[in-house]
Amino acid sequence: xxxxxxxxxxxxxxxxxxxxxxxxxxxxxxxxxxxxxxxxxxxxxxxxxxxxxxxxxxxxxxxxxxxxxxxxxxxxxxxxxxxxxxxxxxxxxxxxxxxxxxxxxxxxxxxxxxxxxxxxxxxxxxxxxxxxxxxxxxxxxxxxxxxxxxxxxxxxxxxxxxxxxxxxxxxxxxxxxxxxxxxxxxxxxxxxxxxxxxxxxxxxxxxxxxxxxxxxxxxxxxxxxxxxxxxxxxxxxxxxxxxxxxxxxxxxxxxxxxxxxxxxxxxxxxxxxxxxxxxxxxxxxxxxxxxxxxxxxxxxxxxxxxxxxxxxxxxxxxxxxxxxxxxxxxxxxxxxxxxxxxxxxxxxxxxxxxx
Length: 355
Hints:
It is built from 16 helices and 12 strands. By secondary structure, the chain is α/β, with parallel strands linked by helices. α8 (about 195-210) links the parallel β7 and β8.
């Protein structure tokens, strides 16, 4: 039996969907389980023992219809028995349609349902701690007679990666016996990034409460924005920030995060990765992102999150969060950190109490 799971685009999506593989392996121990993902997301699923092969959706396939067609034909040659299209967009629709698989599974959409043998309707609410993002993915397993209520993503770092990152931190003046906190200072775009002046206030509170050491999560091309947030912090806070100490690759970031006591900041891939490393998180959601879907494994003082809707529900009325996307900038200004100062303070005190 050969199974292909398709999940393109974002790191958080690829990591979350990876929970399917353990369940598939337990149900079909001798199956070939392959994963089609964007090439830049590979580091979060590298070394996953339940995945046999990776097929990469390259930047060329995104830009070129010829390259996409070539990818679809290469998938067809593999003669998969099952194709599970978690992405469910035009490119993955094409790949699945041409695959020749006897069983094609995806989410229900009225305009693509004819392409699939099983069209699963997403749930809108759940009482499961794993959150809707995982609950809805697990439902895709049901046509294969796999019924699971919860599963947790996991990132697999090597002993060498962990030891190298540990020595890197120590050699750069980090005391691993003191609180070490990674800050997700920037989101994947402006409409998913907490305003710089507000983020600086959050970092000021973190340092004042924990007397901890602070790392910023950013990539070199974001250095100017990271510097801008740093400069908005109080001078006494700046003394605790190791601005130039960051992972130069995604795997390096993961290995550094594995030694942190918590990751705090903008919702996105970094938060999901920290959770998959069993690192505590405090997430600041963008006003237009659906918290119910992505606040996976919410637990007081372990994985907490805040959303403007929690404090100003009247702004949303009967609107869905994604309907508010065009107003993200204005809504962010309303999302003053004073709204959640107390909640963050409880989280931080618990963090330093437990070490």
